[in-house]
Amino acid sequence: MNKHKKYLELSDVVKKYGEFTALNGLSLTIFDGEFISFLGPSGCGKTTLLRAIAGLDLQTSGLVIQNGKDVSDEPSNKRDFGIVFQSYALFPNLTVRDNVAYGLENRKMPKKVIASKVEDLLEMVGLPGSESKYPAQLSGGQQQRVALARALATSPGLLLLDEPLSALDAQVRVYLRKEIKALQNKLGVTTIMVTHDQEEALTMADRIVVMNHGVIEQVGTPEQIYQQPANAFVAGFIGTTNLLSCQLLSTSSLSTAGVNLACECRVDMVGQKALMAIRPEDIRVSNDSEASVNSLDVTVDDIEYLGAFSRVLVSHEDGLKLKTEFSMNVMRDLSIKVGKVITVTLPVEHIRLFPEERSL
Ligand code: ATP
């Protein structure tokens, strides 16, 4: 594994289904040993892109270069990958042993070698000794472990995971994602996982590719995606974000629904309409004595109890009855009640500004 070596290069990949463009010219470089997640709303093209990489559905145009070789027109059986689907896709009439051994037998390996490899693989995915069971005798999580063992059996250079955890219940999902991540780390196999679950992407991926309507919106580490979203779509899609329309008055001030706030604005955006983004966890309740920049008196409209914290919906009405509504996270604070007026602060450093024309 060499994390500086390019392993997979996609160049201007387009996929059309008749008139409909599912992938609209995507380019992306994935490095050796990386764990990449394709994340985006339903229908944005994640699975289509994964299938183009696997050669299961060829792209309409564009290049797929794997390990220095142009595989753009290669059928899937000529490509080097293992794949796990959401629906396990095990052969129901074959034992666990035969399911895992499937790819090895196709390669005509000696029986003894296969038996020992299957034993090792089942040990590796935490299912030792289950060779003679049938898929129907296993839980969903166990079946997905078998599917993983089968995908890894031929030691592929690329592991493709298409929503591998979404059919499992929440508890199994959480521990399997830790195990898959640990296994990927240990093997160093370049991995791409499709998911629409942002928690899964944030916890497992080295880098996340955020997709929307067949294009890539941003590629970055989980921290970059969360803390420095490239646009309003990413800001709104990852985590929870307040997005408010505003007018940019100068490089240091904006107006939203009659309220003027301090901000840091690029010169070229001054005078324009924009979207102001601030995360609920970045808004704080101010002390009475504290007179800070961007302090605002707001009315508490609703309180959602979320266990460790509460999400408080507040609004501010100026003299013209323009209303600004946003949510904020508050750690256990029993003094906050619906209808009460509180003072909150929107710290300048947590306000992000995006051009308004982005579709959300
Ligand atoms: P999900 O999370 O719901 O699986 P996705 O991001 O994986 O979504 P894709 O399955 O890649 O989305 O589909 C992208 C778009 O292409 C969708 O609008 C879908 O309806 C369309 N599409 C996918 N396969 C075909 C097909 N065989 N024929 C026509 N349109 C298709």
Automatic annotation (TrEMBL):
SUPFAM superfamilies: MOP-like, P-loop containing nucleoside triphosphate hydrolases
PROSITE patterns recorded: ABC_TRANSPORTER_1, ABC_TRANSPORTER_2
GO MF term set: ATP binding; ATP hydrolysis activity; transmembrane transporter activity
GO CC list: ATP-binding cassette (ABC) transporter complex
InterPro entries linked to this entry: AAA+_ATPase (IPR003593), ABC_SmlMolc_Importer (IPR050093), ABC_transporter-like_ATP-bd (IPR003439), ABC_transporter-like_CS (IPR017871), AminoethylPonate_ABC_PhnT2 (IPR017666), Mo/tungstate-bd_C_term_dom (IPR008995), NA-bd_OB-fold (IPR012340), P-loop_NTPase (IPR027417)
Domain annotation ABC transporter: ranges: 8-238
NCBIfam families xrefs: PhnT2
Protein name stated in the entry: Phosphonate ABC transporter ATP-binding protein
Organism: Marinobacter psychrophilus
